[in-house]
Amino acid sequence: MVNGHLLGASATDIFGDTRLVFSTNKGVKWSGVPASALAYIPCNASMDFRFFEDHADIYFATADLGVVKYQLTNLLTPQLVFLNSFTGRLQGRNALLEWRTQNEEGLLHYELERSTNNKDFSLINTQQATNSNGRFYYNHEDLDFYDLAAKSGNVYYRLKLVSQDNSFAYSDTVKLNARDMYIYPVPAADVINLHVQGVTEATKFRVLLVDVAGRQYSIQQYNIPTGQTTINMPVSRLAGGVYFMLVETKPGGEVRKFKFVKL
């Protein structure tokens, strides 16, 4: 709390951003900060936090004012919303966005936004906050991900945390690409499958199976069509143990490494 109020924001926004904004009144927004707000840009990411029983002092250096000190008070009243994580992963042809939070008191809702150029974001989902203390989990499955990613390549997501006083803050951006791959089942007994999806142009993969000592057991080249496909590799003759599947997506290019256990 600064001068009686602390804007709800994620831990990244408060402690990891290059710009700290402290408000002199309630209701100030993080975008288009008005003249009534005091804003300082630290010279570097290093800050000195000194915690006491009921408050904390923050010291950081600025280019024009030297060392600036701010005091956070009423620390015993949890008003800071912590966004513990915001992640995204592919789930079939869809994108699954997940976020975990704690201490939601004073938070109104979450707005999930999407972009194909990492500049112009649009709202795709709103979820009400629990508005209480504790730890919470939220998710949203984007059913339009595959079609968008097939056209633009990357799809970007960010989370907007909106407080009850209409102040808000953004999470870090999550980038997903439709061209992804995974193996299953793990552990494997007879067959290990490599699933590839989001391929926009037909290509060839070279797939190697090696053990932890680097010994090669199989080298195969596969034609990969557009869209999605699954490669089945027999492993029944391999001895039980830990192996790696190395996938070369183009000659001399990216090599993806997957670990699996042979039963």
Automatic annotation (TrEMBL):
Where does the Secretion system C-terminal sorting domain start and stop, copy by copy? Answer: 183-258
This protein's name: T9SS type A sorting domain-containing protein
**Looking at the Swiss-Prot or TrEMBL record, what is one Pfam family this protein matches?**
Por_Secre_tail
